[in-house]
């Protein structure tokens, strides 16, 4: 059985979204987060995260954004 997707509470938004902005992520109009990456040996990559089933930002998006940021520095 699939688990229910959890959206971000107002308190979580107030705490987590500034942290993402500090990592050069931008919250865009459609309740999503965006970041572009440029690699010296790969083309530019743009990633927009939002959970379709939830209809906006969810905890999954924050988790994935954090993972992507950590992986991109390796």
Description of the structure:
There is one protein chain. The chain has 74 residues and is an alpha+beta fold. The chain has a single domain (10-72), classed as Transcriptional coactivator/pterin dehydratase (Gyrase A, domain 2, 2-Layer Sandwich). It is 36% helix and 26% strand. It has 2 helices and 3 strands, in the order αβββα. The chain has helices at 10-22, 59-72, and strands at residues 26-28, 32-39, 42-49. Strand 2 (32-39) and strand 3 (42-49) form a beta hairpin. The model has no long low-confidence stretch (mean pLDDT 86).
Briefly note the CATH topology name. Answer: Gyrase A, domain 2
**C-alpha Rg, in Å?**
13 Å
Number of helical regions = 2
Q: Name the beta content range.
A: 25-35%
CATH level 1 class label? Alpha Beta
Ends apart, CA distance between termini = 35 Å
Mean pLDDT: 86
Identify low-pLDDT runs. Answer: none
């Amino acid at each position: 059985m699939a688990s229910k997707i959890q959206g971000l509470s107002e308190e979580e938004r107030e705490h987590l979204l500034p942290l993402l902005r500090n990592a050069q992520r931008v919250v865009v109009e459609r309740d999503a987060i965006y970041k572009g990456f440029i690699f010296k040996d790969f083309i530019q990559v743009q990633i927009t995260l939002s959970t379709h089933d939830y209809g906006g930002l969810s905890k999954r998006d924050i988790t994935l954004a954090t993972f992507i940021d950590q992986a991109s520095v390796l």
